[in-house]
Amino acid sequence: AWGYDQQHGPSKWHEHFPIAKGQRQSPIDIVTGSAKVDQALSDKPLKISYSNNCCQSVTNTGHSFQVVVDGAGTEISGGPLDSTYKLVQYHAHWGPLGENVGSEHTVDGVSYPAELHLVHWNQKYKDVTEAVDKPDGLAVIGVFFSRGKEHAGFKPISDLFSKVPRKGDKVDINFNYDPACLLPAQRNYWTYLGSLTTPPLFESVTWIVMKDPVEVSSEQLAALRNLLWETPSGEGQMFNNYRPPQPLHGRVVRST
Ligand SMILES: O=S(=O)(O)/C=C/c1cc(Br)ccc1O
Ligand SMILES: [Zn+2]
Prior knowledge:
Helix content is 7%, strand content 31%. By secondary structure, it is mainly beta.
């Protein structure tokens, strides 16, 4: 099965998932000077409306944590989106302790220590399984995490990671939690057409990458490593679960 180690990592994924060498793969390096400001994105502002009872549970997927969301009342629309999308899950990708490596998208070649992905599916499809491999099937909001002061909003979630150390572990979220608190105050973003950044790498994602990072503390970044996974030398802390930037193949990144 696929992973992030030398044997099964991103450079090998094309062997079982040939679309890895496709024309609209993610992540990418966002070259800010080449992004095109598109007034249309501001004419129909991106509307993000989540609810405070949508988060059901946190699970260890073996590749990340994943907060499973009951999509009711969690809609995004506008901006680059031609229809309404519902939140289905969110997870993250991160690097080693104390390093500014771990995000999937990079900005002018610069990485952040982690990147959150809020995954939404297009309501024109009957469910996420039908949407996941369609060109307009998913919209993922990417939020960069920078190292700084503690993120009070992320704490209730980061405190749960120690409860799901192994693949398949799951803990219910039995408190109110609004994932909108994970978004930066400033809603400027870059957007482009790309893919899932993990196998099956479907080219089905409208990416919305927020320009401003949100600050989380070193302890909260360290809490991500309470999640464990299999390494070539046995069970170990989960980190470096990120795919490096992929070729742009002439795609245009738009900007608000
Ligand atoms: O890292 S992401 O590109 O956000 C992956 C998203 C993803 C979403 C679904 Br829904 C299924 C498989 C996936 O890998
Ligand atoms: Zn992701």
